[in-house]
Amino acid sequence: MSEAGSMQPAERRLSLLVTVLAFALPVLFVLVPLAIFLGYSFFSVDQGTIVYGLSLGNYVRFFTDPIFLPVFWNTIVLCVSVAIICILLAYPAAYFLTTLKGRWRYALLMLLLVPLLMSYVIKIYAIRSILGLNGFLNKALVAVGILQQPSTLFVFNMNAILLTLTLLLIPFAILPIFLSLERIPQVLLRASDDLGASGLQTFLRITLPLSLPGVASAASFVFVLAIGDFLTPQMVGGISGFTFGRILYSQFGTAYNWPFGAALSVALAVVVIAAILVGERFGRNRGTSI
Amino acid sequence: MSALPRLSTILLAAITTLVAVLLYSPLFVPIVSSFFTISHGDVDWSSPTVSTYVALVQNHDILAALRTTLIVGACTVVLSVVSGTLLALYYHGRRSGRSVLQFIIFLPFLMPPIISGLALLIFFREIHLERSLLTVIIGHTVFVLAIVYRTVLTRLQSMSRTLVEASYDLGATGWQTFWRIILPNLSSAMVGGAILAFALSFDETMITILVTGTQSTLPVRLWAMMRLGFSPDINALVALILMFTVLLCVLAARFLIPRQVATERT
C-alpha cells in the first residue's frame, strides 16, 4: 500500500517486488504471446518448417484465395443470426423476469443462468443427440405431424451449428438484457401510465428504447462467443458446416500452417474487437439515472 | 409493469418456459440416461439402474482425467488468487498506467479462447517450454485472472478507507495493517473469486485443447471420446458434475452476496 509513509527496508523491497510483478505478469503472459502471435502472421511455412522472414503473403492469400473470404463472411452472418435469435428468445424471458416480484425474480434468473455452469462439451454432445435422426426433435416433429419422417435437416450442417450455438449462448443474452430492464426507473413507467399511454405505448416509447443498451451488450457477447467457437462446428457441423473457427483450428492441426493460422486469427480478432467496441459504444446506459 | 394485459403476460410466461426447456433439455439427456438405458432414441423407463455409477468407479481413464482436472484447478486457483489479489492491491488507488494494464489483464478473457490459446501455444514453443500440465495451468491462470482481479478490486473499492486510516493512526505499520485489516476484509472476496476461478478452470476446453500435452483434463478427455460416442458411465459422471457445479454456484453466491449487502448497510 502506497500510503505507508515510513517503510522499513524489507517492506520497500517487497513493494518493489510487487511493482515488478504487477507489470511483468500481464506483459509476459498476455502481451508478449499476443505480440509473437501477431509477428507469426508475417512468417511463412516451407515444407513443414517455419520460415522467419517477413512477408504479407498470408494476408494476400486470405484476401485473394476464393475459399477464405466466403467462409469468413458466412461465419459472420451465422454468428449475427445466432445473436439475433438469442435476443428474440432472451428479451421476452428477461422482460417476464422483471415483472415478477422480489425473490421469485432472482430465483428464476438463477434458474436460467445455471445451465452455463454445465460442461460445454457435454451440452454440445447432448444437443447433437437431440437434433439427430433418432433424436427428440425429430420424434416430436413427427408426432405433431409437421414431418412425415425423421429428417437429417438439423444435424451435420449449418442449421445444426446455428441451433446448437443458440441453445448454448441464450443465458449470455438474458443477463445483460435483464440488468438493463431492471435499471429502468419505475417512476418513468408510472408517469407514462398516468399520462394515459397504453401498455404497448409505454413499452415501445419507454421500456424498449431504455433497454437497447442491454440488447447491444447481449448481441456483442453472443456474437463474440459464437465466432470464437471451434468445438461446436466441429461436433455438429459435419462436412458442410464449415466455419472460420474450424479453418483456423485446422491450420494448427492437419493443415499445419501456423503462420497462416496466425493471420486468420488477426482477421478474427479484428471482427471481435469491432463487435466489442460496437457493444461498448451502444451498451452504455444513457438517461436512466434519476 | 403491473398493468400488463393478461394475454401478453401469458405469452411472456410461455416464451420464458420455452427458453427454460431449451436450456435444460441438454442437461436432462445425460442425467436421464445415467439412470435408464436408451436405445434408438427411446428411453426404457421400466428399469432404473445405478450400474452406470458402478461402472464409473472402475473407469480408470476417466478418473485419471478427473484427477488431472482437479490438480489443474487447484494450482490455477492458488496462482490466480495470489496474483489477482496482488494486482488488485497494487492497482487500487493508483491512476498511472492502471487502465492500460487492467486492459491487458482482461484481454484473455475478452478475446475468443482460440486466440488466447493459440497465442500461448506459439509463445510456449518460442520459449521452448514443452506442452504439459504446467502450460495448461499457465493458460488457465491467464484466463481466469481477470475474474479474481475484478472480484477483489470491487471489494477493495467498497472497503471503507477509514479502516486503514484508523489502523495507521493507532500506530500500526503498513505490514500490520495489511495482515490485520486489509486481508481479513478481502478474504470472502478471495474465496468467492477462488470458487469462480475453479469453476471456470474445471470446464475450460478450448484453451486447454490447444496447450495440453499428453495428460488431458476431463473436458478434453470427453471431447476426444465424443467422436466415438460415450459409454453410459460418462452420463453418471456428468450427472455428478452437474450436482457439484450447482453446489459450487450456491457456495460462490453465499460468499459473494451477503458480504456486499453487509457493507452497504454499514
Provide a compact summary of the structure:
Chain B: The chain crosses the membrane at residues 65-91, 103-124, 136-156, 177-200, 236-257. Chain A is an all-alpha fold. Chain A has helices at 9-40, 57-64, 68-99, 102-113, 120-131, 136-144, 158-182, 186-194, 199-228, 231-236, 244-251, 258-283, and strands spanning 44-46, 49-51.
> What number is the mean pLDDT of chain A?
87
Strand order of the largest sheet of chain A: 1-2
Assign an overall shape of chain B: globular
**Principal-axes shape call of chain A:** globular
Q: Per CATH, which architecture of the largest domain in chain B?
A: Orthogonal Bundle
The main β sheet of chain B shows up as: 2 strands, antiparallel
N-to-C terminal Cα separation of chain A, in Å? 36 Å
List the uncertain runs of chain A.
1-5
Write the layout of secondary structure elements.
The complex is a heterodimer of chains A (290) and B (266).
Chain A: H1 9-40, E1 44-46, E2 49-51, H2 57-64, H3 68-99, H4 102-113, H5 120-131, H6 136-144, H7 158-182, H8 186-194, H9 199-228, H10 231-236, H11 244-251, H12 258-283
Helix pairs in contact in A: 1-12, 3-4, 3-7, 3-9, 5-7, 7-9, 8-9, 9-12, 11-12
Chain B: H1 6-35, E1 37-39, E2 42-44, H2 51-58, H3 60-91, H4 98-110, H5 113-126, H6 133-158, H7 161-169, H8 174-203, H9 206-211, H10 218-226, H11 232-265
Antiparallel strand pairs in B: 1-2
Transmembrane segments (chain A): 16-43, 71-94, 106-127, 160-181, 202-227, 258-278
Protein name (chain A): ABC transporter permease
Family (chain A): Belongs to the binding-protein-dependent transport system permease family. CysTW subfamily.
